[in-house]
Amino acid sequence: MVNVVVGNQILDGLPPLESSAIAPHLCALSLAARDVLYSPNKPLDQVYFPTGSVLSVLAVMRDGSSVEIGTVGREGVTGAQLILGNARAPSEMICQVSGPALRISAADFMAHFETAPTFRRRVYRYTEALFNFMGQSIACNGLHSVNERCARWLLSTRDRVGRDEFHLTQEFLAMMLGVRRPGVTIAAGALQQAGFISYRRGHVEIRDPAGLESAACECYQVTADWFAADAGDAAVGS
Prior knowledge:
By secondary structure, this protein is α+β, with helices and mostly antiparallel strands. Helix content is 48%, strand content 21%.
């Protein structure tokens, strides 16, 4: 029995028996930018494994403004609240970068979580990395410049979609950084002038990853190492 690689770090790290058990319950779909996957205080009845899309967790204020507080890409899975005993979404989740994903019902996800030890360990490890990532982001937003944070988020998005080109509007980038759009225009313009990226009408191409990393704050490598360690555990666990 051979593992089928689907493009999601958690699923690709499963041993064959666990992989074959969960596979019939996964539904492939294509997500479009702005698709709403979860609404605040609504039941979590579906769980998503991105395989080329990026999902954003948003904190929405009473006046309708919002800021991104977390992202999920091919390194992870949504619905961490379920394993903590909460069946409702505390925040809104939307698709930030369009692309493919796999979906499973919350009931099937929890059934597999309870019976498959490697899957359970992989989900726990990812959830820990995600919480660390969110904590680092809070510190990053308070201590580092918009240009540094912009470079960091572009690199993180690249890692999550697994390619150098993707569509990301200034509106989404502003939500990611917690700044107004003029600040994003200036930051992206500086990175483009340096030759690190090409950015036009929401289409991003990372032309010099090493250069872009040199412009990013230390938080990029810190968080990348957490998720890379998670991937290493997958290889050992399988």
